[in-house]
Amino acid sequence: MSETLEHIASAARADAPPAIVLDKVNKWFGTMHVLRDVSLNVATGERVVICGPSGSGKSTTIRCINRLESHQEGRILVNGIELTDDVKALDDIRREVGMVFQSFNLFPHLTILENCTLAPIWVRRMPKKEAEALAMDYLTRVRIPEQAKKYPGQLSGGQQQRVAIARALCMKPKIMLFDEPTSALDPEMIKEVLDTMVGLAETGMTMICVTHEMGFARKVADRVVFMDRGEVVEMGTPAQVFENPQTERLKTFLSQILRGH
Amino acid sequence: MSDLTLETSVAKVPEAAPRSPPASQIGLVGWLRTNLFSSWLNSAVTLLVAYLVIRWLIGFVEWGIVNAVWSVPNNQTQACRDLKGIGACWAVVTEKHRFILFGTYPYEEHWRPALCILLFVGLYVVSAMRRFWRKELALVWIAVLAAIGVLMWGGVLGLSYVPQERWGGLVITLILATFGLAFAFPLAILVALGRRSRLPAIKAICVLYVELIRGVPLISLLFMASVMFPLFLPEGMNIDKLLRAQIAIILFAGAYLAEVVRGGLQALSKGQYEAADALGLSYWKKTGLIILPQALRLVIPPLVNTFIGFFKDTSLVLIIGIFDLLTAGKTAIIEPAWQGFGVEVYLTVGAIYFVFCFAMSKYSQRLEAEFNRHRRR
């Protein structure tokens, strides 16, 4: 039963147009070549985990997808819209792409509820009452509705990151980007954030997640992408990548990760 | 990793009952001991300073209250002269207070600038209360400032016309400071944003403006506004002298405030800009809803510092012959009968400045505490 369902779901994914297309993307910081011919297609509903050593360009890659960084060569398409200097297209893309940062980046001068309602009210022009109801709904889903009236500084790191997830979801994005969402957290808080992300993955959201949490990758990722020195080195299902690494670089990386844990 | 459960709470350890700190370290005695008498050297300094303060206080009370003359009959200052400096001649203030407050404004019309001063103070008080921070407040400001203009100039509603040359005293100081900061502050925000703009032309203009204005003293700017600027105007055209000084002050304060605001903009982390961008907020929404509210809160202390500085710097308009509070005080004692009683007049004028500046300072401290509550855990 569940197998057939999964089969139908994956078939549907294959037919749907890709949510994100990166085609030979190159980027330089000054003279440093940080992305080298990065190509990656992400289907609608697909969950992709990007891993790799620090400085490998994984964060830069997903930051290019909503143009927090601009690329210099190659093409990036999000939901069929190409990322260029066109401001209108960029606004359309950012509205559909939610992002969660390593350092949460909640707005400290606004309450939790205001953090969540800000973009729906000012970008989607939603009435305040409706936006608040929506925000409370998502805060309930990340299990912190009781904190709505507090300020970010009064919450723990794990709670703040869950608010950040709720804030992004309030824009009803079609794609969610996670940039090392658990790296700044104390160990006992990592689980609560990962659980929230697993829950989100189960709803069929298209997700790209930069993380070192291999347990999470195994559990939810359809595909794992390994990057090193600005290149995509290996790509495949979690089983392929973790059990059967093809390259020396991935083997080295995995051994370091395992030793670290 | 995610399957790992971590037990962090420490169970079954009996809690120690809380104890109060030693009696010698709390209360008045504790405070005195730690702050004033912590060593024999500190004790000696405390006693010496206390002696000097008390001596000076006694002297001041004798001069200012016990031996003082509070009023004299029609300009007969002999009583004051007889004191030979052992007592204050507050009579000069009693006699000249109208001149100090209102300058050469027609005597029988003094209620008009007096009402203006009350309107200004009322405006400050209302603007200071956060529950009035709504869009309507801007309308209140426009209405009150217009009312002040009508009251001061007159010529309508049965009020007699009073030319600007006759305005003077405290009301001039309040006009220059209020209009000056009300216009300089928005200007400063735009310039500060412009200086961080990615558009090279805008950035260059803003940098040029700030550096040029900051590079010259306010006095020279006032001179230029009053002496040189009319030379460039066509024959017969004349812009009010007060307005010219006002513009000079706005431009000057704007440059200083812009740098203060820019400091706040730079103190914000890049993540705040990125989070706002990622949510799809446009530049102006991002700036107005996320960046400025935080940046301005961070710079309340230097902002108010600059405000206070400019409130007092308005007194520099005396060099182009505008009668502000300080000039009025100075002029009040030019009359031969009252010469030599400068100390009393300057103390009074100083006290008026102090009341306004101290109120600003206290208010800013409260605002800062209120705004930054969310920063504390």
From TrEMBL, chain A:
Signal peptide: none
Gene3D superfamilies found in the cross-reference section: P-loop containing nucleotide triphosphate hydrolases
Pfam families xref list: ABC_tran
Ranges of residues in domain ABC transporter: 20-254
A single GO molecular function term of this UniProt record: ATP binding
InterPro entries on file: AAA+_ATPase (IPR003593), ABC_ATPase_HisP-typ (IPR030679), ABC_transporter-like_ATP-bd (IPR003439), ABC_transporter-like_CS (IPR017871), MetN_ABC_transporter-like (IPR050086), P-loop_NTPase (IPR027417)
SUPFAM superfamilies: P-loop containing nucleoside triphosphate hydrolases (SSF52540)
Keywords attached to this entry: ATP-binding, Nucleotide-binding, Transport
Highest taxon above the source species: Bacteria
Family: Belongs to the ABC transporter superfamily.
Name the UniProt record assigns to this protein: Glutamine ABC transporter ATP-binding protein
Organism per entry: Roseicella frigidaeris
TrEMBL record, chain B:
GO BP, sorted A to Z: amino acid transport
Membrane topology according to the record: Multi-pass membrane protein
InterPro entries in UniProt: AA_ABC_transptr_permease_3TM, ArtM/GltK/GlnP/TcyL/YhdX-like, MetI-like, MetI-like_sf
Every ABC transmembrane type-1 domain range: 170-364
A GO MF term: transmembrane transporter activity
Membrane-crossing segments per the record: 40-58, 110-126, 138-161, 167-193, 205-233, 245-265, 345-363
One Pfam family hit: BPD_transp_1
Superkingdom, natural source: Bacteria
Predominant place of localization: membrane
Subcellular location: Cell inner membrane; Cell membrane
Any Gene Ontology CC annotation: ATP-binding cassette (ABC) transporter complex
Matches recorded under PANTHER family: INNER MEMBRANE AMINO-ACID ABC TRANSPORTER PERMEASE PROTEIN YHDY (PTHR30614:SF41), MEMBRANE COMPONENT OF AMINO ACID ABC TRANSPORTER (PTHR30614)
NCBIfam families cross-referenced by the UniProt entry: HEQRo_perm_3TM
Family the entry assigns: Belongs to the binding-protein-dependent transport system permease family. HisMQ subfamily.
Name under which the protein is recorded: Amino acid ABC transporter permease
Species the sequence originates in: Roseicella frigidaeris
